[in-house]
Amino acid sequence: MTELVALNALDNPPQGRRRKWLLLLLTYFIVGIACQLGLLGDHWMDQHSGREFSGPAAGAWLGTDHLGRDLAAQLAQGVRIALAVGVMAAGGAVMLGTLMGMLGAWFRGWVDQTVLWISSTVVAIPGILLVIAIASVLDKGIPAVVLAFTLVSWVSCYRLIRAEVMRLQGMDFVLAAKAEGGSTYQICVGHLLPHLWPLIKVQFSLSFVWAIQTEAVLSFLGVGLADAPSWGRMIADAWAWNDLGSGHIWRLASATLALAGLSLAVQRLTAMPSHSPVPQRGDLPARN
């Protein structure tokens, strides 16, 4: 029994750490939903003359910016924007990559060659540059950022799904489904898709982190969201107004920490197992 407990402690991270990251992520979602419902941060555009660059106070927990606007309200609205962009962009990229990977691996031939050529063309251009180019052509807003990210970042998921479907095609359960007369849709959705869920979940989390970071870069460069308090816009304003040189660290620090916190929460929850498997008797070290 002592050896069993020791193996569990060594092989699996403490569940307490997972709960902390889960609580942090849940906090982000609560703030984002509250902002979407108009319960929090809806006054972020209100300007207060004479309160420019004021420090943290009761009315503005993180102080104010160069226009006297509440930084805490802007930060909360940035949570809403980051979650919206992350979920929609990562979801679109993963769905497109999964669809293309399954189609190419299943039908092979000219279908696979066509999708493979498209994916090779996309990855031939640096991702961030392609996202900037697409976002610059489209209207500034969340749909433009989501579409640009989806069209660029689906390739990594496509490659993994394609390779996994090719491997699964020779498995006995797929061959049995074909022998029973199962249609392509039934086999792909009912038999292959459940085996692809682990890959899809990991790819979603990776794409989510890259999506919110990409949105921050686009907003910092001025080609992302227009007239929206995204974290990238807050960092850009802090740079433009030389907040650090003036001793006003709240805008830059809060936006940077919020972005890092959300990215770390998603990454750590993905890396940690959701449960602690109990080693089988055969896995225990032999007694002398």
Task: Provide an overview of this structure.
The protein starts with a helix and ends in a 17-residue tail after the last helix. It has a single domain (2-43, 67-281), classed as MetI-like fold (Orthogonal Bundle). With 288 residues, it is an all-alpha fold. It has helices spanning 2-11, 15-36, 71-107, 109-123, 127-137, 142-153, 155-168, 172-179, 184-221, 231-240, 243-246, 250-271.
Summarize the structure.
The protein is mainly alpha-helical and 288 residues long. The protein has a single domain (2-43, 67-281), classed as MetI-like (MetI-like fold).
Question: What's the structural blueprint in terms of helices and strands?
Answer:
Elements: H1 2-11, H2 15-36, H3 71-107, H4 109-123, H5 127-137, H6 142-153, H7 155-168, H8 172-179, H9 184-221, H10 231-240, H11 243-246, H12 250-271
Helix pairs in contact: 2-3, 2-12, 3-4, 3-6, 3-7, 3-9, 3-12, 5-6, 6-9, 7-9, 9-10, 9-12, 10-12
Question: Major sheet: size, sense and barrel closure?
Answer: none
Uncertain spans, ≥5 residues at pLDDT below 50? Answer: 1-7, 276-288
CATH architecture group name: Orthogonal Bundle
**SS-based class:** mainly alpha
Briefly note the CATH topology name. Answer: MetI-like fold
Mean pLDDT over the full residue set: 86
Defining key terms:
disordered N terminus; disordered C terminus; mainly alpha; 70% helix; elongated; 0% strand; MetI-like fold; 288 residues
